[in-house]
Amino acid sequence: MAYFNPLRMAYHLDPYPALAQLRREEPVHRSKELNAWVLTAYETCNRVLHDDDTFSSDPIHAGGEMGASIAATRAAVPLGAAPIMGNSDDPVHARIRTIVNRAFVPRVISAIEPRLEDIAGRMLEQLGIPADDRGTFRAGAQAILAARSEGPSRIQAASEAHNLMTAMLGRWQQSGDVAETSVLGTLLHAADDERLSPDEMLMTLIHIASAGNGPTAFAIGNAVLTIGQHREALARLMEGPEHLPSAVEEALRFDSPTHMISRFARRDADLGGRKIRAGDMAYVVIGAANRDPDRFPDADTFDTARTDNRHLSFGIATHFCLGAPLARLMIATALSAVMGSFGRYRLLEAQRGGTLLLRGPGKLVIAPE
Hints:
Layout: H1 9-13, H2 16-25, E1 28-31, E2 36-39, H3 42-50, E3 55-56, H4 64-76, H5 92-100, H6 106-112, H7 119-127, H8 134-150, H9 155-175, H10 183-188, H11 198-229, H12 231-239, H13 244-254, E4 260-265, E5 269-271, E6 274-276, E7 281-285, H14 286-289, H15 324-342, E8 345-352, E9 361-368
């Protein structure tokens, strides 16, 4: 049986050698450390992400103590029963996504492009949260998410945040001055037969704010770091902005900010000759799939001229990231700003941050060459 331990510091710093070995030796691997299956081949990952009937995004389908714990937590914490788009299945997922998607159509994204100067604040602007409420909303969102992940010790703070955010939502509904093209405006102005409950609205806003900011910030950091490590790529980008879109895609493939995605088997299934049991958890390792040489020639080579680049960094199929166009624009805008300010730059310091699921630098220092 192949050896694989993603909890080691060496893996945190550079997971790709271990993932390449695992993909060669056992692409469908049962991990004792994670108590889950680890999937590393592009074809298998792609199949699982397409098969919502067999592999659920909702951890409530986890077997044993994990599923029971999640059910208990959802019942206890504020907004615990409200669905999160990224962790829900159809028809709930489709109902919420259909409404929210209207705030991410190309026309809306293009309209904000001239004003993309503040990377962090931009996401809350797209959400439509009034400026005076953004600090309260951000703190409340953090409190709610902490309660969902950490349990009883965080419930009191989350309850207080829930009350504040519910009051804010009522005020926003009455004010009538929320931009209709923003996420908040889209939710508030949905037709009666589409309208979400107040808790569903709040949880959708929280999810979009948290799911968008962290991975996008890591994507920017990964891109700046990787390009800085590859001088030919940096020189090509300096030739002109026409090389920027392919550089963004290759940076996303080469070192994806979304490193793993979890799925939960609804029923028994066969993957690569291994028997997956109902209730089993599986990690779809996006970072490994994006480096699979059976899908990408010279997969470990950073090539900003790569044309066939259907990576999985934004997911695929039902759960393809609805914010992908905005994320691409934000990454490109950030890279343009770096080039404009520094020109050819050099790396002074790079420290890894992130988690098992998200990969990016915790600290990155650059300087003009």
